[in-house]
Amino acid sequence: MRRYVALLLAQFRVSAAAAMAYRANFVLEGLLSLVWIGLALLPLLVLFEQRESVNGWDASASLVVIGYFTSLRALLEGVVNPSLNDLIARIRTGELDYVLLKPVDAQIAVSASHYAPWKVVDLLGGIAIIVWALVRRGEMPTAGQLALGVMLFGAGAIAMYSLWIACAALSFRLVRLDNLMFLLSAVFDTARWPVHVFPGLWRVLFTFVVPIALITTFPAMGLLGTLTPLGALGTVGGSLVMLVLSRLAWRAAIRGYTSASS
Amino acid sequence: MTSAPSRALRALPTLLRVGVAETVAYRAEFLVWILTSTQPLIMMGLWTAVARERPFEGYSSAMFVAYYLASLVVRQLTANWVAWQLMDEIRRGTLSMRLLRPVHPVFAYMAGHVAAIPFRAAVALPVAVVLLICSGGSTLTGSGLQVALLLPSLAFAWLISFGLMFAAGGLAFFMTDTSAVMNLYYGLFALFSGYLLPLDMLPGPLETLAAWLPFRFMLSVPVELMTRTLDGVRLAELLGGQLAWAVIATGLALGVWRAGLRRFEAVGT
């Protein structure tokens, strides 16, 4: 266990050093992030300028979902995506062999091999949106709701990570990874909306097939105190099931891996 | 010695055949690209649900359906992934293969993507039929002129999209990490092309900004041709804007290409 913590820390140090070497880029990316957060709020503002609420979601509650979405996307673009991009390069060059030879679990070594540290700005931005939304709502969560909200944030992050790792595993044999990740990112973008604003068929799709409801809507409901105990259990259970499935997919992919090196 | 244009023209059938073969060979990848541009369906779900009880900013449910299905059709026909292709080939050095051929590479890339259009049309056509049936024509334009202008408008949209994507991909000549540029491009596109929401729903200043950016000419204009009734002046404005941006985008692509080639060192083997 301690070995893995040391490994992740070392990998983070290297990435942070690399990012700090390009300070201008670092600042630019941080500033751009702020602009993006603003633009991402736009459709929501357009919607709630005209309507009080849509299917039970008012502006403040929807803002909480956007806050969760922004924070999770920060994790996605700050850790998961850079690492998997790194994985593509390694599969292509055959360098993945060296990772597989190391005395650590390859999935863990690969999952956090690269970071984009400036995404911290997004993470903080997401949290700021949540706080703003709660103030706007005029009703602070109780300690229990806060704990549930934080815990389900973790569950959402696990669900998101599983989706991406499964996709990476699939791409070992099917298609090129960047392509598939691009599709996943496009779908993930809908996680900015509470799943209930979508009509029936879409809602089923986003809850069970591509479970983005698990990733943002339910955790946000946990924080808002509108999630049933069964819903909370389903979110945690669902994300764990996804983690196990993605682990199996990864193992199958590694078994089928034949090095690309000469 | 034949001139460059006639040489390119003679090579065209072969280039198209290669393009078709590539699309068929990488069909899984192609399918993923098609699925990527189905986002209008998601937005359609959202806004029709919102507008079910009463119209939203003048849009009824049926109008939202028409708008997003039309934009799905336009996006299928005009989107391309040349930026990713170009970046990949620059980074890996495989671009040098293209440089050896006696056809201008920009033209060769273009032909490759033109060859994919029939496959994309095969996806777009059923959607268009559904659109016709759903709306019963009531939310679509009845003007023959607009229908006639749709084809040139789509061609312009394709050219603008190709030119900008090519220029964006060509930035890989100058910088090692272009993902930030692509994120910026897609973000601006989603917002200012009418892909996420109809442009007249944007707040005032942003709507004005959208009128001057190239993105609306890539998507919103053909969609408007299909779903609105526009007067002559407006039509001339929109098509004129498309023509201007098509010229600028093509110039940009050629400019980036020419400047980039000087720096290209064919990394890799």
The average pLDDT value of chain A, as a whole number, equals 83
The arrangement of helices and strands of chain A along the chain is HHEEHHHHHHHHH
- Helix % of chain B is over 70%
Biggest sheet architecture of chain A = 2 strands, antiparallel
**Termini separation of chain A (Å)?**
34 Å
The proportion of residues in beta strands of chain B is under 5%
Summary keywords:
heterodimer, A: 262 residues, mainly alpha, two-stranded antiparallel ribbon, 11 helices, 2 strands, B: 269 residues, 14 helices, 75% helix
Describe the structure.
The complex is a heterodimer of chains A (262) and B (269). In chain A, strand 1 and strand 2 form a beta hairpin. Chain A is globular and about 55 Å long. Chain A has one domain (2-255). The longest helix of chain A is centred in the first third of the chain and has 35 residues, at 59-93. Chain A has 11 helices and 2 strands, in the order H-H-E-E-H-H-H-H-H-H-H-H-H. In chain A, helix 3 (59-93) runs antiparallel to helix 10 (212-224). Chain A is mainly α and 262 residues long. In chain A, strands 1-2 form a two-stranded antiparallel ribbon. The model of chain A has no long low-confidence stretch (mean pLDDT 83). Chain A is 78% helix and 2% strand. Chain B is an all-alpha fold and 269 residues long. Chain B has one domain. Chain B has 14 helices and no strands. Chain B has helices at residues 4-25, 27-36, 39-50, 61-78, 82-92, 95-100, 105-114, 117-135, 144-170, 179-192, 204-212, 215-218, 220-227, 232-263. The longest helix of chain B has 32 residues, at 232-263. The radius of gyration of chain B is 20 Å and the shape is globular. The relative contact order of chain B is 0.13. The mean pLDDT of chain B is 84. At the A-B interface, helix 2 and helix 8 of A face helix 2, helix 3 and helix 10 of B.
Layout of helices and strands:
The complex is a heterodimer of chains A (262) and B (269).
Chain A: H1 2-21, H2 23-50, E1 53-54, E2 57-58, H3 59-93, H4 96-101, H5 106-111, H6 120-137, H7 143-171, H8 177-188, H9 200-209, H10 212-224, H11 229-255
Antiparallel strand pairs in A: 1-2
Helix pairs in contact in A: 2-3, 2-6, 3-6, 3-7, 3-10, 7-8, 7-10, 7-11, 10-11
Chain B: H1 4-25, H2 27-36, H3 39-50, H4 61-78, H5 82-92, H6 95-100, H7 105-114, H8 117-135, H9 144-170, H10 179-192, H11 204-212, H12 215-218, H13 220-227, H14 232-263
Helix pairs in contact in B: 1-7, 3-4, 4-8, 4-13, 5-9, 9-13, 9-14
